[in-house]
Specification:
It is a single chain. This protein has 211 residues and is mainly alpha-helical. The chain has 2 domains: 49 residues, Orthogonal Bundle (Arc Repressor Mutant, subunit A), CATH 1.10.10; 151 residues, Tetracycline Repressor, domain 2. Strand 1 and strand 2 form a beta hairpin. Helix 1 packs across helix 2, helix 1 packs across helix 6 and helix 5 packs antiparallel against helix 8. The radius of gyration is 19 Å and the shape is elongated.
Length: 211
C-alpha cells in the first residue's frame, strides 16, 4: 500500500514514529497516535510490524544505518580538519534526527531485562560494535583519523573508544540538559554552528598535545 506521492505505508509509519519520539519521548505515545495522522487504523500497522516494540527496533535500525556512515574519510584534508568536519556532520546528524537522541538515552537507561532498542537493531552490544557489526567500520574510520593526527603530531595518542565516549556523551547531554528545546524544533543555522564549535573545543582540548 502506498500513499502520499508513492511513499510506502511502512516508511510513513516509521517517519511518524520518529516525529512522535522527538516530541513525546520513546514511551509517550501509543500506536493509535501513529495511525491517526496517517489516516489508517491501528490494525494496518500490525500488517507491517508485530508490536510497538518492533516498530521502535525498526526505527533504531534506521538510526544504526545512518550512524554507520559517520566519519567518512577525506584524503584532501589534514587529520585535524578531517576530524572537525566529521564532528560537524555528527552534530548535524543528531540535530536532524532528534528521535535518535532519545532512543540512545533510553538504551543507556535499560540494562539487561529492558527493551534495548538500539542494541537489538545493532545486533549486539555497543562494545561488540567497536570490532564487529554494522558500526565497526565507522569506529575504524574514527580510529584511522585519530592515528593520522598522532603521526602529524597534531593529536596526542588517545584511546579511540575513550574519545568517542567523550564526544558522544557530551553531545547527547548538551541536547537534553538543562532543556531539550533543540529537539522540539528545527534549530537555526547559527545554533547548529554554535554546537559544532562547542563540541570541537571539547575534542580539541582532549586531543591537545599540551594536555
Amino acid at each position: 500500500m502506498k500513499k502520499n506521492g508513492g511513499l510506502p505505508t511502512r516508511e510513513r509509519i516509521l517517519d511518524e514514529v520518529e516525529r512522535l519520539i522527538a516530541s513525546k519521548g520513546v514511551y509517550g505515545f501509543k500506536l493509535r497516535d501513529v495511525a491517526e495522522p496517517l489516516d489508517v487504523q491501528v490494525p494496518a500497522i500490525y500488517k507491517h510490524f508485530q508490536s510497538r516494540d518492533d516498530v521502535l527496533v525498526e526505527v533504531s535500525r534506521r538510526f544504526i544505518g545512518l550512524l554507520a556512515g559517520q566519519f567518512q574519510p577525506n584524503p584532501k584534508l589534514a587529520p585535524e580538519a578531517a576530524l572537525r568536519a566529521g564532528l560537524d556532520r555528527f552534530v548535524e546528524f543528531k540535530l536532524a534526527h532528534p528521535a535518535y537522541v532519545r532512543l540512545a538515552l533510553v538504551d543507556f537507561a535499560t540494562p539487561e531485562g529492558g527493551m534495548e532498542y538500539v542494541k537489538l537493531a545493532a545486533g549486539g552490544s555497543f562494545q561488540d560494535n567497536f570490532s564487529d557489526g554494522p558500526l565497526a567500520a565507522m569506529h575504524a574510520r574514527l580510529r584511522a583519523v585519530l592515528r593520522a593526527g598522532v603521526r602529524t603530531r597534531r593529536f596526542r595518542r588517545v584511546n579511540a573508544t575513550d574519545f568517542y565516549r567523550v564526544v558522544k556523551s557530551a553531545l547527547l547531554i548538551r541536547l537534553v540538559f538543562p532543556d531539550d528545546d533543540l529537539l522540539l524544533r528545527r534549530p537555526t543555522a547559527s545554533q547548529v554552528r554554535a554546537i559544532q564549535r562547542w563540541l570541537w573545543e571539547i575534542a580539541a582540548r582532549y586531543l591537545s598535545t599540551r594536555a
